[in-house]
Amino acid sequence: MKKGAIAIIAALMAFTACTSQGINENAGTAESETTEAADTTVQTETSAEDTGEVTAPDEAVSSADVTEESSDDEDLIEEFDLSVYDDVLERTAHAIAAGSPDDAQDVWLMELLMYTEDDAASHICYAYADINKDGREELIICPSDIGNAAAGTGVYSIYACPEGSTVPCCLAEGWSRNRFYITTDGRIHNMGSSGAAYSGHCIYHISDDGASLECEDFYFTDFTDEAQTNIGVYHNTTGEWDKDVSELYLENADNFTMFEEGLEYMDFVTTPFTSLVSEEWEKKANIEVTELESTDSLDAYDSFNTGITENGVQIAVSSDTDANVILVSLTMNDDLTFDAAEIYETDIYEGYPFVTTVSFPGSIPAYGLEVTDAFGTRFFSLDMSGFDGSVEIHEIKVNNVEHSRG
Asked: b/e per residue, 132-141, with b = 16+ CB within 10 A?
């Protein structure tokens, strides 16, 4: 037998002996401590009997009291307040109701609203999940069929509330060629592409403070030669799409899909945006413009004299909810958008319309309305129907507004 083997066996025997001795010594110590504890208990009981003293019930600390105290401590741990995400949900619902996002960050929403013919509110859902098990749930905005992650739908966006903050931040936002998936082990899988030769698989985890995503592994394809005849797979742990800071992992990308194999994705209990969008629509003032022969039928109203006498049409602008209305003059641009200049501002509400006189010098509208209500600000042109000559309003896009009130 070799000397090395003999030494290993000897070491193992010594370790076993030491371990056994330690166990026996510990056992002896435990037995001794138990005996001493028992003796102390007997002495205490004897002393109590000899003196006739009895421990008062309110001074005794029972195991039940300890358990109840521990339970109270657990109740003191506050649950994460999901209301921190209310503004995000409201903003998203508002964008769905309006048919376009207010924030350029919502690329996925702009893409979805552009190509979704059906009711978008029923196709877009939200869910809460503590992805990284830190006690602070994340807000996940996702399609209604997210339960079938293998179908390739991914999540639209992921929001988190960093530790010590009440303002959520967007961790990830996907679209058709930049998809995010949440794995069952609490990681974020990103699949993206910027062309036939450029695809990527990245695995992220949420940072300890919950404020960002940190890359674990990033595999991406790129040309391996100057002639661009071969596509290989590169790897780094920084998430940079840069060959110079990466290693060549595979000479060719024939089996690039291997990086998504074995990943399992989370399922969520989702809630459609339908009710939230309905609430947004309820905030939207229903603006109506009617031609008036006289104001005799109106109990109360605000009015403005534009000075138009020739070919003028007297109109009443009414609303079923509170709204701020500005009469504006319109100038059409080459791209069919408008610039607007303020003429008169007023507030209207149900039963209190705004009355003025406008004219229609041609087919291009000369006057319009800027309407601001709880839903937001919209612009309308004042038009005359070519069918029956009635006054109509149409929502328009205004690039620039000159407000005389500053």
From this structure: bebebbbbbb
Helix (H, G, I), strand (E, B) or coil at 159: strand
pLDDT digits (tens, 9 = 90+) for 386-400: 888 899 999 888 988
Query: Does residue 345 share a domain with residue 259?
Result: no
Helix, strand, coil fractions of the chain, as percent rounded to 5: 30, 35, 35
Q: Is 380 helix (H, G, I), strand (E, B) or coil?
A: strand
Asked if residue 233 and residue 189 are part of one domain, the reply reads yes
| Least confidently predicted of 140-154, 217-231, 388-402 | 140-154
- Pairing between β-strand 188-195 and β-strand 198-206 as defined by DSSP bridges: antiparallel
- Would you state the structure tokens that stand for residue 81, as one six-digit string? 């307040």
> What's the half-sphere exposure (Cβ side, CA atoms, 13 Å) at 41?
6
pTM reported for the whole predicted model: 0.65
The edge-to-edge listing of strands for the beta sheet with 391-396 is 391-396, 376-384, 367-373, 323-332, 338-348, 398-402
pLDDT digits (tens, 9 = 90+) for 5-17: 333 333 333 333 3
Q: Which domain holds residue 257?
A: 82-272
Split at pLDDT 50, 70, 90, the class of 118 is: low
Q: How far apart are CA 306 and CA 208, in angstroms?
A: 62
Mode of pairing for the β-strands spanning 231-236 and 247-250: antiparallel
Residue 335 lies in a domain: yes
Pairing status of strand 398-402 against strand 338-348:
parallel
